[in-house]
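step: validate -> pass
step: tokenize input -> pass
step: predict -> running
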Amino acid sequence: MRIKLPLRILAATAGLVVVLVGLVVSENQARAGGREVSLPMEAVDPRNLLTGHYVALRLTQRLPHGQPCPDTPTAFEAGKWLGLTPQGRFVRAADSRAAAAAGGALAVRGGVYCSRMAFGDQEGNAVTLDIGVDRFHADQDEAEGIEDALRARRADGSPPTAFAVVSVGADGRARLKGVIVDGKRTELTWF
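step: predict -> pass
step: emit ->
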């Protein structure tokens, strides 16, 4: 007995909807169940004609004086691990999860590259983290407001008071939860 075409299309559609809802629910649970960390960030540009309004995130932080740069830059796709303090400060890059987590650090999948940057009237080493989190989508007014706040901070030389709030799950993957700009937290919500 053959099932009629409209019923097959309906069954396929229902199956795809169930898979999509399951994916959204599982990602939301992973985001809620992970360990939350706030990482310093800089914004780049809030607009793109094809993907809508967003704030592009650059997770850059100054290294403490005397802490050397990682030996070689790596990308997120390389499968390396980063060690972070509970406050979101970069500690080390490593080839394994155990090495990244040494000393109680939080291990997160990602890459890192180091550069010299000006911080006010001083210069120092800074790392930019590549943890698979690179943009925060928002409506136009919200994205432009976040960008304006970050640009105003950079113009007067003060460090940005902006943070990307990520949840690091048991799998070591970072998932964006929201952003904090000038003390105002904006959550990423699906519903």
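step: describe -> The mean pLDDT is 80.
step: cleanup -> pass
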